[in-house]
Amino acid sequence: MDKPILQVALDLVELKRAVEIAGEALEGGADWLEVGTPLIKSEGMDAIREIKKRFRVKTLADMKTIDTGNVEVEMAAKSGADIVIILALSDDSTIQEAIRAAKKYGSEIMVDMINVPNPVERAKELEELGVDYINVHVGIDQQMKGMDPLEILSNVANEVSIPVAAAGGLDAEKAANCVSLGASIVIVGSNITKSRNVVESARKVREAIDKSWKSGKKVELKKRELDEEIREILMKVSTPNISDAMHRARAMRDVHPVVRGKKIVGKAVTVSAFDGDWAKPVEAIDVAGKGDVIVIKVSGDNAAVWGELATRSCINKGIEGVIIDGAVRDVDDIRELGYPIFAKREVPNAGEPKGFGEINVKIECGGIEVNPGDWIVADDNGVMVIPKERAYEVARRALEVKKHEERIRGEIEDKGRTLAEIVELYKWEKVQ
Length: 432
Ligand SMILES: O=C([C@H](O)CO)[C@H](O)[C@H](O)COP(=O)(O)O
Hints:
Blueprint: E1 5-10, H1 15-27, E2 32-35, H2 37-43, H3 45-55, E3 59-65, H4 69-78, E4 83-87, H5 92-104, E5 108-112, H6 119-129, E6 133-137, H7 140-143, H8 150-159, E7 164-167, H9 172-180, E8 185-188, H10 190-193, H11 198-215, H12 226-236, H13 239-245, E9 256-257, E10 264-273, H14 279-287, E11 293-298, H15 308-317, E12 321-328, H16 331-337, E13 341-346, E14 358-359, E15 363-365, E16 368-370, E17 375-379, E18 382-386, H17 391-415, H18 419-422
Parallel strand pairs: 1-2, 1-8, 2-3, 3-4, 4-5, 5-6, 6-7, 7-8, 10-11, 11-12, 12-13
Antiparallel strand pairs: 9-13, 10-14, 10-17, 15-16, 17-18
Helix pairs in contact: 1-3, 1-11, 4-5, 6-8, 9-11, 12-17, 13-17
The chain binds the ligand O=C([C@H](O)CO)[C@H](O)[C@H](O)COP(=O)(O)O.
């Protein structure tokens, strides 16, 4: 196999920034530039013209065509696309029309396998139809659910003889694995274009794929434990990142950090308690395990259901933190212990341990429904609740938000730009 191609996908919506990032990616070792679908939708064919004219390298247009193959390929090819990307899910007649148009205008066709139910079979059919490249692609939304192009890559690569590309959430390590599994083109988007130092990130991928190609070794794919991965990702992101990822939903109201500067991530052990009745909140310490978060909904906030001694017990058990929609006391001691407690009110008086209430039931805490096992992330900004069914997806989306902000932060700090300028705020104000 020839040296693998590094194709960088410019999935931005601002052409000016895309041009700048493209230059940096080429400096870091990229070979081909892909004008991403969001950029094409935002700026039209001009984006392809601009990238092709500026850089004179092989330029791809990710049209994601599913119908009228002829018209869309003609537009992209005339604008300078050397390769036009269309969808494998298209009808064969669309694929054939796309191939005919590409031949007419001197371009090639790459077919994106996103969402194809039987990838190996379809890849063989597409090769037969005469496409030039197959792209084993897991879309951005699919990646958020944990899907990975590596799982099917070698099956496809072993069955066709045209070049196979791989795309979908690749970083340096995964890109190298793709090469070892048979990809001759590696497509990387956000892990290069959203990074603060695009040159450096592109260089890392370049080095990793070249090393994998030279060594010729096959990799063993390892599956990680899901909870471990969720926790690791959530530790990297802030509650504002999570809020953005969840479209601003599921932030608790009126629950604040007693100890500032602490961040907690863990699965909820829920408690429903009555004002001042601290029996169930304290018994929950025995139910919770290392790394859990105790989340308590109290029916009032006149008397505390939590204090210093309960806090010390949590420390002994390695419990991550406590969230109380109710009152807490001994806050001076708790601050000295530096233990993360988030509560609604601070009061001096405790109530009585009568034993009313329940542990591990559905509760509404800070105005948000919390079920046992939901993920809780809390920091100085507040408390976010992530339903357990969506935990991996939300964690991944929050990480994307963080990556996106990293690049923008870099442009503000290093290039002296303003936020409005970078994201073209005026252009994207809602038309009334
Ligand atoms: O094709 C893509 C996606 O559907 C958005 O248009 C991306 O270019 C492709 O997934 C590569 O980007 P990353 O997944 O961010 O590496």
